[in-house]
Write a structure and sequence with these properties.
The chain has 780 residues and is α+β, with helices and mostly antiparallel strands. It has 5 domains: 158 residues, Orthogonal Bundle (Arp2/3 complex 21 kDa subunit ARPC3), CATH 1.10.1760.20; 134 residues, PAS domain (Beta-Lactamase, 2-Layer Sandwich); 99 residues, Beta-Lactamase (2-Layer Sandwich), CATH 3.30.450.20; 106 residues, Helix Hairpins; 163 residues, 2-Layer Sandwich (Heat Shock Protein 90), CATH 3.30.565. 54% of the residues lie in helices and 15% in strands. The chain is built from 22 helices and 21 strands. The strands form 6 sheets. Strands 4-3-9-8-5 form a 5-stranded antiparallel beta sheet, with helices on both faces. A hairpin with a 5-residue loop joins β10 and β11. α8 runs antiparallel to α11 and α18 runs antiparallel to α19. It is rod-shaped. The relative contact order is 0.06.
Length: 780
Amino acid sequence: MSTLGRIARGLGLGLVGLVLNLAALEVLPGVHLLLGPLLVLITAVLFGPLAGGLAGAVAGIRTLWLWGHPWGWLNITLEGIFVGALRRRLTPLVADACYWALSPLYFLLTYRMVEGIPLEATLVAGLKQAVNGLLAVLGLQVVLLIPHVRARLRALLPLPLADVSIGRAFGSALTLGAIIPLLVVGGAEGRERYASEVRQVDEENLHAAGVVVSEIESSLAHARHGVSRLARTLSTSLSPEGRLPGPHFLEGELDALVTYSPEVINAYVGSPQGVALAFSPRHDTEGHPLAGTDFSDRPYVREVRHSREPLVSDVFLGRGGVQGPLVVTLAPIRREEHYAGYVLAAMDLPRLRRHARAQVGDTPRRVLVADARGGIIFDSAEEGPGQVQSIRGSSLARALERVSSGGTGSYEVEPDAVTLVRIGTTRHFGMVEVPALGWRVVVEQPDTRLQHDVEQAYFGLLGTMGLATVAAVLLALGFSRIIVAPVQGVSHAATRLTAGDRTARASEAAKDAPRELSQLAETFDRMAWQISRQLEAIERTSREKDAFLSIASHELKTPLTALKAQVQILRRKVGGEHVERLDNVSRQVDRVTRLVNQLLDASQLGVEQLPLQRTRADLSEVVRRVAESLVNASPLHTLDLFTRPLVGEFDELRMEQVVHNLVSNAIKYSPTGGLIEVYTRVLPDGQAELVVADRGIGLRVEDEEQLFGRFERGNRREQTGISGIGVGLYVSREIIRRHGGRISLRPREGGGAVATVRLPLSLGSEHDDHAPHPMADGRG
């Protein structure tokens, strides 16, 4: 197939693989099972590395946006090239296994070092892709065992797949049959387990969030009750002019509020202008008095002036003796429409944070409490006062917008990272609102624990698949032995029968085999018995025919010899025009004599009675003498003769008979005339070679061996009118075989035929072993 054809098939099958990859099956979050590699490997096995690489490059495009990096795409491309390059030496499964055995270094360099994907996730991705590729190539091998598929693709199958043993076929089929159900059931179970784990995590998160909400509501209720009660007390203690009591009175009331309200960290009474008139405790951590601190810039100071009910502030950064984020509850001090100030209590957020942390314990869960504006009131994972933070615009805020109170969801901390890193930053959360305040309590935990549990299940699945594969291979070996042993017994019996052993039988080898194989062996034995009887009958008939031919030939030789002698006597006695007629009679007698001799030789060969009388002779002289005699007698033909001395142990008369048969056939099957080429030479391995070539009607490839049979002449239309009885080549081959050589006949390019004889030869020192063959120089 041309390079363009391979490119076209690679691109076409790659597009089909791309379509299959669109239906990726997610076995784990961020880990997908792809179907496209099956098309990539089919392309690589059938059309080679170029087509396989192109198919991988096209089919792998899906992974670029599926996984967010180019390394999966490059991996599929390299797999197609690697398997395609080894397809003529190894089976696809072995070639792909070799590729994946070399892949760990690739994954460490690309997934781990370049992309920063965690090692465990890199291991899962590598194992998944290896399973993906090996499963695809195993499916490919099983598909290519189907007879209908093999018949259509036979011309494209590489050698390791063209010759498949029963053991390999059983092993591939049983392994695939064991793995696919495990993979389907295991994948479904893995996804169900992951979903179950997510449900459990969501329930845990919601429960913890509900407990924290209860604590917040209880603390807020107590704090609001405290400031509200104190505000009412102070409103009744106002002077007729509407002034608040003195600092000592206020401090005593504030001390009682802080002492009996564990959810309050400090409290103060503020003037209408927002200046602290009294504080409990009195000083900050550095010993500075807190009374007189101006809080007029706080939004709650302006809000409480117009309020008649207690308020809760949004989160802000404290400065009244409390460092870090702060939330306060406050109530106005009023006598009718007169506003005299306010009472404020700061929530003890560290206490709430400790309570929230107690709900999650040592787990990786985290409690976040956000106010209505998205400010973080406290974070259970934070230590120390921290800073006021906002979740506005974050992936968590966007996820919270999609759920209502009591709902669950998930978000990714790094949504723009590659898939495996992005999935590794997934957080599952449950959210419960504090209805009176619009606060949202979020309890979240990372997906890593779930991933770890599912990955362990995936590794367990792979281990089960490995055990199933080993079991399938062992079963395949066992079954293949059960099945192959009787089949091999039939094969051995057939080989012995072909070699001439008519006692060969297969029943003994298949006596303990399954019924069908036993029936096969019994059928073979019946066939062998019938063939033996038929061969015996044929041989008996052949012997009788050979005996008849031998007797008839002997009987014919005597009158032919007498007729030849009488023709010679008459030729000497007559003259003129009668001499030519007697010469024609003499030639016809010679022709009949040769036919009788050939029949006699054929009959003697049939009964193994053709003796050889070896003497030391130069075969090239025999060739020269016979070829020149025959070609010179044919006015339409010319001879191209090239000989080298060929001295050896030959039956000169029989070799003359061989040369006569080959040269006369070349003349006879070139009825329009032409060049007859006859060459002899010594081959480098010490054999003698004789070549006779013509430019006649030629022969068909299927006739090359048939024409050496006894009484075989072929059935081509061009042979009509060409005389012969079909024993010349048969006798010639037997003579050459008894000399330890071989003879062949083949069509010649451009028309005609070439007969080649090779014989063992003991050479003298004067011979040139490397004499060039004239036909190799273009003379043929």
